[in-house]
Known about the structure:
The chain is α/β, with parallel strands linked by helices. The protein is 29% helix and 25% strand. It has helices at 9-21, 33-45, 63-69, 81-88, 105-113, 124-136, 175-184, 204-223, 253-265, 279-282, 315-319, 332-337; strands spanning 27-32, 51-56, 75-78, 96-98, 118-121, 141-148, 159-160, 170-171, 188-194, 198-199, 233-235, 272-277, 286-298, 301-306, 326-328, 340-346, 355-363, 370-373, 395-399, 408-411. The strands form 3 sheets. Strands 1, 13, 14, 15, 16, 17, 18, 19 and 20 form a 9-stranded mixed sheet that branches. Residues 157-163 and 414-420 have low confidence and may be disordered.
Amino acid sequence: MAERLAIPDHVLSAIASQRQASSEPMAAFFYDLPALAAHGRAMREALPPGVELYYAIKANSEAAIIDTLAPVVDGLELSSGGEIARACACSTPRPWVLSGPGKLDTDMREAMRRGVEAFHVESLGEVARLQAVAAALDHQQPVLLRINPALPEDLSSRLRMAGTATPFGIDESQLADAVRAVDDAPNLALVGFHIHAMSHQRCEQRHQRLLASYLERWPQWRALARAPERVTQLNVGGGIGVNYLQPSEQFDWSGLCQALGQRLAAMDEPPLVRFEIGRFLSAFCGYYAIEVLDTKVSHGEGFIVCRGGTHQFRLPAAQGHDHPVIHLPRDPRQASEGERRSWTVVGQLCTPKDVLSRQQELQGVEVGDLLVLPLAGAYGYNISHADFLCHPRPDQVFIRDAREGSELETTSHRRAEPVS
């Protein structure tokens, strides 16, 4: 069973206010923006000299999330034309880079017109297309080559992005050819290398070894360039995981930064290192609150059926974990006196895969109670199949002040009905 988490009072107040304002059973996301900003500041303050923090907005690209993190981080990492539009609408303009496979020529042109800092190039074919777009615009474009390096097997993780056959990056064996192609492109300038090898890393020491393996090879990679003195950046990606089942035991970010600082200080010509963090920045600020519609026992297993489900919060199903659940009873006295048993928490979808959490020990659960799923600020609603079964989309409530009763901003994504 997962650890129990406490919900801050101002978040509880926001949940109560939103519920009072709604005539329907609740299914809504709540984002604690002051907590998000504080977490971002703490992460950036832990960085050693010569290291930057970018926010990978794919984790959560809602405007309020980007606007909260932009003043805190050094820049933004984007992966599509849609993300370009969102980043450029930010209230605090920040530098940004464009990465990811399968970039459209239209996205390349739009990025150059809007002042992209650099492209992370994924293949030799992309080098040629990017040169053609830059030449047509008479534009000089900095680029980083994304490397798919060989990695020791013991550095593997649940989601490998490199060190094996993937669509991401250029094999290390082809790197010299890729560097030569960029050097030969009159409108491109090689400024560094990008590696994002693994996701869901929860062990600081293992990630420390992964970064050390990059830095050991940095001089050889840099020496491939025709003008190595202009190659100064090493983007080490993100991949820092969140421990959903043991929330008090999270990745030791400060320990990683301290070790990285010591290693960089010992190098003769260290690169400018850049992290692009998504999940580990935004996950902790989010809460998904869903109302209990029904309880039942089937073949000896207890089920709590809630408003919402995996079509709104796909994260547990996508990652294959049982998400922590916090019970908010309507009547605390009845809950304390009710039956305690193991429950499987499910949503409204017509599929047995619509499971948010299993084996949750809860007491006195009744129809009309709320269940709150914390750690819902990253890869939750934004990766979900919200239109499945045409259920209404959930409201997203952004808490801008940590004081109880403060003003809330609500974004509604409800599907528009046809006009008769």
